[in-house]
């Protein structure tokens, strides 16, 4: 990992060096082997059955989950003491990214490894781990996460499912309905959230064979045809008291922390899908002839490919930076015996940042992929059409991007974040980009001071302000991740071998900071004129010292020649 552990929660207030972050260039031999094994599993086992899976022949899904369990893919980041392989968050991120090629199957797999297994792995009793977790990790039992209700989606704590303790004190009677539950059609057990006595939000393990548990027919969805999505109806279900996960009334601690990890897994899956969309688009552009030449020879197509690659490079930099930071934190937790909930919560902001950024970049990439395919991109026999439909749910999964933006802003407002000290960047690698990063950090702190001074920090009401705070933080994290990764690559391999990374970083910093500067200027009247805020905003929208058109053509050409995303 990094040479020293850096509290990434303060990325807005501290100077971070390239050696403080993890990048994909730091993959160990073991991690590369895991990547290769996962890719082969998807190519050789999942893809040949994908047609049947997307025809809802779920016996194939169940069989593949068992195969994944036998390979250790489900238990990668579970502690050895709980039956896992304890390979770390980086390995788990790699597996999730590579599994994305399996489209709908990756949803089942993600539900199993993340929100299905982790409540028991992180918060369950030893008895629960022995009875349930080991079978989840081997794939013998499939888990589902039952949180959402017809009247409680984003506002999960407003759920109406109830749990009443029996007079004998040996079981709870649970009643309610859970909606849109992934894996529900073939799950063996459910992680169910219910309110004890109608008020105390609590997590339970509910087996599908308990009397009173039923599931609805499969939902008809826009995409992800090969994932199971059903309602789960709980009609006076008797659940043993030993199936309570954690403490009565503390279910929100489990739900929110598991969702944090789930958001990071969605980021990794979105990254993997974006890379696949780039590969499909480049392949099509190279093969398709129009006006006597390949589509990939046309500069507007090159521009699209370059934009897809640039955003994906930055996304990849942020996702693996976060994976490395969380891996360090989990290792520190193990050494010090720290609380797991607090350890995960340290990275709640980063997980939300990655979730928002990755899913929105994915939507951009698959949309451009369809456009490059032209009319063929609209035809269902082309994979890009499936990716386009499948991708849309990602901005809704694990909390909508709107609620995640409010989470980011609210969390950051509560922190005592101090402005970063003036840093001399003269003569450093990527000097201009580093200066822009410092400007953005100053803009963030200026904005926080302005909204507090003017009483605009009630973010449930000031949601436009919250979204802007979040977007500044997202872009700072993204830009800084790209700069640090690129600088690290230059230090290791020199500038000549790092040209693609340098170009991607320069363009992303320029274009994203310009967009933020314009948004800031458009919000000035709402904030009441603030001279410092205004001056920073105007500096951000200055023209780039680079020939952006030429750099994008170079990025595209490298990708076209490689036939896929390269970094």
UniProtKB/TrEMBL annotation:
Limits of the Acyl-CoA dehydrogenase/oxidase C-terminal domain: 249-412
InterPro entries: Acyl-CoA-dh-like_C, Acyl-CoA_DH_CS, Acyl-CoA_Oxase/DH_mid-dom, Acyl-CoA_Oxase/DH_mid-dom_sf, AcylCo_DH-like_C, AcylCo_DH/oxidase_C, AcylCoA_DH/ox_N, AcylCoA_DH/ox_N_sf
Acyl-CoA dehydrogenase-like C-terminal domain location: 457-529
A Gene Ontology molecular function term of the record: acyl-CoA dehydrogenase activity
Domain Acyl-CoA oxidase/dehydrogenase middle: 144-237
Keyword list, A-Z: FAD, Flavoprotein, Oxidoreductase
Cofactors: FAD
Catalysed reactions, semicolon-separated: a 2,3-saturated acyl-CoA + A = a 2,3-dehydroacyl-CoA + AH2
Residue intervals of the Acyl-CoA dehydrogenase/oxidase N-terminal domain: 28-140
Family: Belongs to the acyl-CoA dehydrogenase family.
Name listed for the protein in its UniProt record: Acyl-CoA dehydrogenase
Organism: Niallia endozanthoxylica
Classification lineage: Bacteria, Bacillati, Bacillota, Bacilli, Bacillales
């Amino acid at each position: 990992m990094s040479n020293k552990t850096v509290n990434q929660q303060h990325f807005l207030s501290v100077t971070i060096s390239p050696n403080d972050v993890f990048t994909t260039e730091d993959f160990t031999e073991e991690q590369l082997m895991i990547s290769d094994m996962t890719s082969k599993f998807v190519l050789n086992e999942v893809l040949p059955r994908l047609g049947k899976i997307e025809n809802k022949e779920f016996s194939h899904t169940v069989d593949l989950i068992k195969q994944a369990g036998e390979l250790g893919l489900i238990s990668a980041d579970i502690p050895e003491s709980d039956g896992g392989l304890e390979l770390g968050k980086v390995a788990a991120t790699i597996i999730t990214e590579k599994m994305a090629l399996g489209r709908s199957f990756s949803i089942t797999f993600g539900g199993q490894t993340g929100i299905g297994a982790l409540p028991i792995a992180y918060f369950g009793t030893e008895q629960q781990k022995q009875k349930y977790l080991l079978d989840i990790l081997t794939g013998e039992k499939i888990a589902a996460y039952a949180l959402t209700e017809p009247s409680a989606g984003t506002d999960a704590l407003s759920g109406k499912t109830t749990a009443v303790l029996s007079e004998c004190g040996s079981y709870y009677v649970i009643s309610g309905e859970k909606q849109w539950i992934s894996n529900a059609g073939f799950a063996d057990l459910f992680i169910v959230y219910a309110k004890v006595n109608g008020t105390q939000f609590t997590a339970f393990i509910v087996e599908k064979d308990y009397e009173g548990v039923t599931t609805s027919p499969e939902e008809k969805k826009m995409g992800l045809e090969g994932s199971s999505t059903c309602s789960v109806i709980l009609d006076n279900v008797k659940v043993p008291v030993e199936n309570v996960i954690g403490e009565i009334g503390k279910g929100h601690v489990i739900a929110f922390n598991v969702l944090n990890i789930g958001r990071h897994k969605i980021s990794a899956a979105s990254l993997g899908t974006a890379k696949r969309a780039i590969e499909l688009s480049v392949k099509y552009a190279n093969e398709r002839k129009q006006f006597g030449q390949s589509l990939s020879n046309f500069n507007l197509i090159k521009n699209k490919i370059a934009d897809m690659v640039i955003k994906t490079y930055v996304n990849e930099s942020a996702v693996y930076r976060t994976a490395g930071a969380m891996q360090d934190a989990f290792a520190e937790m193990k050494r010090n015996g720290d609380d797991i909930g607090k350890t995960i919560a340290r990275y709640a902001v980063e997980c939300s940042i990655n979730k928002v950024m990755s899913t929105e970049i994915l939507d951009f990439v698959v949309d451009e992929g369809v456009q490059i395919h032209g009319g063929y991109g609209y035809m269902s026999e082309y994979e890009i059409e499936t990716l386009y439909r499948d991708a849309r749910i990602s901005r809704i999964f694990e909390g909508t991007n709107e609620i995640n933006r409010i989470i980011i802003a609210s969390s950051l407002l509560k922190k005592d974040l101090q402005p970063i000290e003036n840093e001399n960047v003269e003569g450093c690698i990527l000097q201009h980009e580093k200066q822009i990063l410092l400007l953005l950090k100053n803009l963030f702190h200026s904005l926080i001071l302005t909204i507090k001074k003017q009483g605009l920090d009630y973010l449930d009401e000031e949601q436009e302000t919250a979204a802007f705070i979040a977007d500044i933080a997202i872009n700072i994290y993204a830009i800084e991740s790209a700069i640090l990764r690129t600088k690290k690559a230059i230090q290791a391999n020199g500038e000549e071998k790092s040209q693609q990374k340098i170009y991607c970083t320069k363009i992303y910093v320029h274009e994203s900071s310009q967009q933020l500067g314009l948004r800031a200027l458009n919000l000035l009247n709402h904030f009441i004129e603030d001279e410092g805020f205004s001056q920073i905003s105007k500096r951000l929208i200055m023209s780039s010292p680079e020939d952006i058109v030429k750099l994008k053509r170079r990025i595209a050409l490298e990708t076209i020649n490689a036939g896929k995303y390269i970094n």
